[in-house]
């Protein structure tokens, strides 16, 4: 679990605002905070609960990371995002209050880490079930998403979003793998 100084915990569960969002990557919503030199350090996307929404989230993440010269982290980031969004759609959206459920993807860059966030309307905590070789859990059909996130991320966790909802986050190192 990160310290309270973790960048995504300073403003619990809230990715960057989409106020003044510009269009990028075929009309995908984009919002960013400028860093030194004018380069954006954060981006956010509303993700529809559909196959198209999943695809848009993956394209958005890859395009954003390429723009930040982090294309080499794209595969890991997209896999983590896919697992977190899938969990949100499967577990949080069905339990949400009436109305159109909203899932939000956030990406935030600092000098040493890329933080990925998925905010959803569910209050239920993510359930991490690590593999246990003696019980056959490695063969289960569902429930491996957070094991994948745990394997790829430097750290991960979740933060409640009062009055309802939560944000699940994961950090990936931006240091070169070589």
Description:
The chain has 178 residues and is an alpha+beta fold. It is built from 3 helices and 7 strands; from the N terminus they run βββααββαββ. The protein has helices at 51-67, 74-92, 145-152; strands spanning 22-24, 28-30, 42-47, 103-109, 113-120, 155-160, 166-173. The strands form 2 sheets. Strands 3-4-5-7-6 form a 5-stranded antiparallel sheet, covered by helices on one side. The longest helix has 19 residues, at 74-92. The two termini are 27 Å apart.
List the helices and strands and how they pair.
Elements (H helix, E strand, L loop, with lengths): L21 E3 L3 E3 L11 E6 L3 H17 L6 H19 L10 E7 L3 E8 L24 H8 L2 E6 L5 E8 L5
Antiparallel strand pairs: 1-2, 3-4, 4-5, 5-7, 6-7
Helix pairs in contact: 1-2, 2-3
Overall mean pLDDT score?
74
Strand content: 15-25%
Structural class: alpha+beta
Stretches with pLDDT under 50, minimum 5 residues: 1-36
The largest sheet, given as strand count, sense and whether it forms a barrel, is: 5 strands, antiparallel
State the end-to-end distance.
Answer: 27 Å
Shape: globular
Tally of strands: 7
Q: Biggest sheet: strands side by side, in what order?
A: 3-4-5-7-6
Can you write the helix and strand succession as a string? Answer: EEEHHEEHEE
Radius of gyration: 16 Å
The tally of helices reads 3
Q: Helix fraction?
A: 10-25%
Task: Give keywords.
178 residues; disordered N terminus; 3 helices
Summed up:
Helices cover 25% and strands 23% of the residues.
């Amino acid at each position: 679990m990160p310290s309270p100084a973790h960048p995504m915990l300073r403003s619990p569960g809230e990715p960057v605002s989409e106020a003044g969002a510009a269009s990028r990557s075929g009309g995908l919503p984009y919002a960013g905070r400028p860093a030194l030199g004018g380069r954006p350090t954060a981006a956010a996307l509303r993700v529809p609960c559909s196959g198209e929404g999943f695809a848009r989230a993956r394209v958005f993440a890859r395009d954003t990371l390429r723009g930040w010269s982090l294309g080499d982290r794209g595969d890991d980031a997209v896999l983590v995002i896919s697992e977190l969004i899938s969990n949100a759609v499967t577990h949080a959206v069905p339990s949400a209050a009436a109305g159109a459920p909203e899932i939000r993807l956030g990406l935030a860059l600092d000098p040493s880490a890329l933080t990925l966030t998925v905010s959803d309307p569910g209050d239920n905590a993510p359930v991490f079930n690590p593999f246990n070789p003696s019980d056959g859990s490695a063969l289960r059909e569902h429930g491996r998403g957070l094991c994948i996130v745990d394997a790829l991320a430097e750290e991960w966790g979740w933060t409640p979003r009062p009055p309802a909802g939560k944000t699940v986050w994961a950090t990936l190192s931006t240091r070169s793998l070589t």
